[in-house]
Amino acid sequence: MMKFILIVNPFSGKKQGLKILEKIQPLFIESDIEIDIIKTDYSGHSENIAREFDITKYNGLLIIGGDGTFHEVINGLLNRSDQKKIPIGIIPAGSGNSFMHDLDLVDPVKAVNLIISNETRLIDVMRLQMGDEIRYGINLIGWGMVTDVGLTAENIRWIGPIRYTLAALFEILFKKSRKAILKIQDKIIDTKFMFIIGCNSIHVGKGMKMAPKAKIDDGLIDVVVVGHEISRLRLLSVLPKLYKGTHIFEPEVTYYQSNEFSIFTEKNNILNVDGEIIGNTPIKVDVIPQTIEIFATI
Question: Which CATH class is domain 130-289?
Fold first, then answer.
């Protein structure tokens, strides 16, 4: 008999976690699969569970939550003292579910059926070094305007998924650039930027194709850079193109694929990591290829 530990984040997205649990639990029962359920009580709880829980008697660690819950679980798993790993299954309940868009698994029932079929694949993880601290990202690591958008979106979370678009429009209105040094490939770029974002997956926010060439298992980070010279009007015209991924053809947008990059700033600037507003510059980011196993089709 297969046995899973299931972490449920009741606060994820529109607080649908428990309703989704009710909906999908019978699917496991019908398939004769045992699940041990843990409901999270506080921010960081999922990370603590993934880091400290005895996972040896389970076939997988499942999550009912969004990108933030997945981020916590990855960081917990990669910081285990016993270095043990376990396949992860994501049952989407967040407001963005960016990573799940890449897997075409935004429907909870479809995600559960895939878990039951026991089909897995390996994915890359981005490693973010900030001084002595190391964090891991599976979706995005952003600096500049993308962090401002994340902060604004968090403050209007009650609006729902549309908050990402509204937050972007707000930040365009109050357009501000920042000075930084970007080191990538063999280049050192010292100038002002609107934003720099490193992506492991195609999607960010709610269905925005920020990095349309990205693959979650190719050993590369797709880095999208927008310079300070872009005007408000141009930003407004480029924003809708994010949903098709055609923004990368605009002259103010530069697209890199690299296994590492670094950002240095005069002041410590906060970051957007998988939609979570954490850490600060300066940073060095590299990729750990195919290090996490997830329930998904190739």
Answer: mainly beta
Q: List the catalytic residue out of 32, 41, 67, 148.
A: 67
For residue 61, which amino acid is it? L
Per-residue model confidence as pLDDT tens digits over 148-200: 887 888 788 777 777 877 887 888 777 789 999 999 999 999 999 999 999 99
Q: What is this structure's pTM?
A: 0.92
SS3 content of the chain, % helix, strand, coil (to 5): 30, 35, 35
CATH fold of 3-118, please?
Rossmann fold (3.40.50)
Q: Indicate the burial class of 194 (C-beta count within 10 angstroms; 0-12, 13-18, 19 or more).
A: buried
Q: Which of 168, 173, 222 is nearest to 199 (CA)?
A: 222
Classify strands 178-184 and 187-199 as parallel, antiparallel or unpaired: antiparallel
Mark whether 67 is an active-site residue: yes
pLDDT 10s digits, 104-115: 888 999 999 999
Q: Where are the domains of the chain?
A: 3-118, 130-289
Which residues, including other chains, have CB under 8 Å from residue 257's CB and lie 6 or more apart?
A: 213, 220, 221, 222, 223
